Amino acid sequence: MEYKDLTVMQLVDGIKTKKFTSESVVKYFIEQCKEKQHLNAVIEVFDDAVEKAVEIDKKISAGEQVGKLAGVPVAIKDNILCKGKKAGCASAFMQDFVSPYTATLVKKLEDEGAIIFARTNMDEFAMGGSCENTYYGACKNAHDDSCVSGGSSGGSAVAVAAGLCPVAIGTDTGGSVRQPSSFNGVVGIKPTYGTVSRYGIVAFASSTDQAAPITKTVEENEYVLQIMSGQDVHDSTSIKNDFAVDSPKQKIKIGLCRQLKDKIDGLKNSEKFYLAVKKLKEAGCEFVEVEVPHIENSLACYYVISPAEATSNLARFDGVKYTTRSKTAKSLEEVYVESRSQGFGKEVQRRIMLGNFVLSSGYFDAYYKKAKRLQDLLKIEFATAFSSCDVIMTPTTPDVAFKIGGKLNDPVAMYLEDLFTVPASLAGIPAISVPYAKDGHLPLGMQFMGAQKSEKILYQTAKLFQDLFKGGI
Amino acid sequence: MQYDVVIGLEIHAELKTKTKVFCSCKNEFGAMPNANTCPVCTGMPGALPIINKKAVELCIKAGLCFDCKISDYAVMERKNYFYPDLSKAYQISQMVYPICVGGHIDLESGKRMRLNRIHLEEDAGKLTHISKSIGSLVDYNRGGTPLIEIVTEPDFSSASEVDEFLKRVREALVFAGIADCKMEEGGMRCDVNLSLKPQGSKEFGTRTEMKNLNSFKSVTRAIEYEIKRQTEVLNSGEKVMQETRKWDDAKGKNMTMRSKEEAQDYRYFPDPDILPISITDGDVKKIKDEMPQLPAQRRAKYIEEYGLTAQDAKQLTTSKYVSDYFENCVALLNLPKKISNWILTDLLRLVKDQEEFVFPIDEKRLVQIIQMVEDKKVTKALGLELLELCQSSEKMPEELAKEHNMIANITAQQIEEILVKFISDNPKAVEDAKSDPKAMGFIIGHVMKCTQGKANGALVRQLVDKLILQK
């Protein structure tokens, strides 16, 4: 048996019952990180991790109370703050930034005994769907190192898939947890907006940013998400989400969105999708067709709203306070222009330009305001759709992981990766990606979306689905 | 050519909250640089603003002072621009949905000055330029402190109207405990938008905006300067440029800060980190109930109901403390005119020059002294002495008067005896008194002296009149 084959709950149990020590677990995963360095999933292993593990072991030996994640190593995405540790958003601009405070979600994990032991690679400032836009070099797919990991939380997904850690935290703004989870055959959720506090997560698009766990199994995912979530006095958009409905559904009603039918039918792997539908029907699920009339406009809407918010959120990286200041700048204006031109990568600059454009006077009403109206509409349409079904099922991504460099010069093709994930982000509803099939050696994920705060049903469906496809399709 | 002057104002006032508007750092002036800062107000990545409820309440309160409509739905927006004193590179302010809309202040002339809005926003930090080699330093203590911005309609046509308006704004804000409005500390700032148009014309001319006006005096001077400058520009056949001009108080002139071409596009949009503010009628009512009556209303009451002079009414409303003191006294003893006289002539004299303005004795004791004088239990002179005694004692004036043997207990007969003796001793003075009122005072003084001031003044006057003048 290897530690990487155990679930989070099994690890906690083993550590608590002294079957093995947290120290040995942490050392094991650190070793795994070193061994699989070529994947570029983990950027840094924190040097105090073993020390913290020893502390937990001591507490257990002394019979002290330890938490629900006692001694379990957790990797966090490079845009999540942990006091005293670097958080660089995989950007050259932020490479020396040391967090002055700890994110609420990290504190919640640490309060339960988790050991934050490493930070993972990502697309710079979480912008991208391949984890190629990174200062640390492209993160490679756990199943094929010539393919992308997906993104932006590529490092976190690969770390879990390749056994570098039992659980990793990612952030999802338009699919950044779900898409790499799908590409790497692991489970990733984007919870109801506000479920996990955003305090201490470097903001990309504030109105859709959500942090979430990436795990091997659905059960672990639910276990960790419950620990991370909760209303936070430091985030006024955070909510109390008790994951609704206590008793499991007798019969799950799955919706297929009529407006996405043509898109799904046209996919290379549509056959697998419908095979999954068939299997679910056989397992007793009911399928209904639902309408989300404006779902096709989601992508356009998302690529107006998210750059707009990003433009403003990233303005603070100005070379004045904590980002690298251009050495050639001679005036204040040059400090801004040169530092930002030299510091931000191409994709980030592209989105900053886009965001500034849609917010600028004369264009605001035509773009940003319209997109916001569409977002409101989507929320209503989804709410209506969920009155006739429990979950809506779509593929997580149009296809499996693509080759590294394959879409780098085609931003629009890259944006199309978010086709199925973006609607849930805009509507603020929960969505989970669960692996179910492979195309060749590359995994495929299925996405289930649920109504606001319906994580419980979502997890129930995801578990059923996971068990049905354990041996592949 | 003759021109009409058109002026509109943007007034910023720092709100009197304990903490900043989006974090729990202290809101205070004069701390060590960056002592009052945290990840939120220094704009650290990942930090989020949490709106200070008190700041919203004070903004609503300001709206109520000037008869604004209080919105039931208000939105905080981001105003995006780069400057090192702005830690996030955006200021959280309001644009489309401000907390207060409309409103007005009526000047003494009766002219109504309309407000456009009052909104809530955060202040920026402070830059200090040290030297070329060291560079500039930034202090974020002020960053994130709450401000209200009062925007007026272009209703002003002179510096004196602006001056009166600003003073009325300050008076109300200070009175209602909303802001301290210390202009020299930057607690109140005023930007002036000014344009000229040919007399009687309906069309507005091109306006300039003037900044850096740090005192009431500089506002007046700057307006007068700018009117003259624009008049000269127009008279020479040129056009006024739309621009922002910076006032230099030492030089007594203004100069271009930035032109319209350099004007920034602030790319406002609703701040996704802050939920829209919903304000119910109940919230507004609660705040209204806590509001003190404002000085203008109080003055009207003092003049119309109490019959005070405009001058006295003004003096009594210089601060909420004085005005409340006066009203508390009136509530205890319904003699407003008398009380006003006592406060303004006798009590004010005793106020010590110290940081906090306080009267040396409380309302209850002052009223008792006045009551005793009115009842002729003590003379006015002894009443004043009692005032002094009260300062160094906790006792009630009546008790002090007894202790010091001050109660006026001299009978008419005793006074008559003194007067009869006086008449026989000073025949000359008696003759003089008949023609000279001053000499009369001398006689009354003599009686007071003989009775150690315990004679009832009116009674003495009456007897002098009877025994001397009528003879």
Could you name the key traits of this structure?
heterodimer; A: 473 residues; alpha/beta; Amidase signature (AS) enzymes; eleven-stranded mixed beta sheet; 16 helices; 11 strands; 37% helix; globular; B: 471 residues; alpha+beta; Arc Repressor Mutant, subunit A; ten-stranded mixed beta sheet; three-stranded antiparallel beta sheet; 15 helices; 17 strands; elongated
List the helices and strands and how they pair.
The complex is a heterodimer of chains A (473) and B (471).
Chain A lengths: L7 H9 L5 H14 L6 E4 L3 H13 L11 E5 L26 H8 L3 E6 L33 H8 L5 E6 L5 H7 L2 E4 L19 E6 L2 H11 L24 E5 L3 H5 L4 H13 L3 E5 L7 H16 L18 H12 L2 H14 L5 H21 L5 E5 L15 H6 L5 H6 L3 E9 L2 E9 L4 H14 L5
Parallel strand pairs in A: 2-3, 2-4, 7-8, 7-9
Antiparallel strand pairs in A: 1-3, 4-6, 5-6, 5-10, 9-11, 10-11
Chain B lengths: L2 E12 L38 H13 L3 E2 L2 E2 L2 E4 L9 E4 L6 E2 L2 E3 L5 E11 L3 E6 L3 E5 L6 E7 L6 H17 L12 E11 L9 E4 L4 H20 L7 E6 L4 E7 L9 E2 L6 E2 L2 H10 L4 H10 L5 H7 L3 H13 L3 H15 L12 H12 L5 H12 L5 H7 L8 H14 L1 H9 L1 H14 L6 H13 L2
Walkthrough of the structure:
- The complex is a heterodimer of chains A (473) and B (471).
- Chain A has helices at 8-16, 22-35, 49-61, 104-111, 154-161, 178-184, 218-228, 261-265, 270-282, 298-313, 332-343, 346-359, 365-385, 411-416, 422-427, 455-468, and strands spanning 42-45, 73-77, 115-120, 167-172, 187-190, 210-215, 253-257, 286-290, 391-395, 431-439, 442-450.
- Chain A is an alpha/beta fold.
- Chain B has three domains: 3-282, no CATH class; 292-403, no CATH class; 412-469, Arc Repressor Mutant, subunit A (Orthogonal Bundle), CATH 1.10.10.
- Chain B contains 15 helices and 17 strands.
- Chain B has helices spanning 53-65, 159-175, 216-235, 281-290, 295-304, 310-316, 320-332, 336-350, 363-374, 380-391, 397-403, 412-425, 427-435, 437-450, 457-469, and strands at residues 3-14, 69-70, 73-74, 77-80, 90-93, 100-101, 104-106, 112-122, 126-131, 135-139, 146-152, 188-198, 208-211, 243-248, 253-259, 269-270, 277-278.
- In chain B, the strands form four sheets. In chain B, strands 1, 2, 6, 7, 8, 11, 12, 13, 14 and 15 form a ten-stranded mixed beta sheet that branches.
- Classes of the chains: A alpha/beta (473), B alpha+beta (471).
- The A-B interface holds A 79-81, 87, 89, 94, 97, 100-101, 103, 198-203, 205-207, 233-237, 308-309, 311-312, 315-318, 320-322, 332, 336, 356, 359-361, 364, 368 and B 39, 42-51, 78, 80, 82, 84, 87-90, 138, 265, 267-269, 272-275.
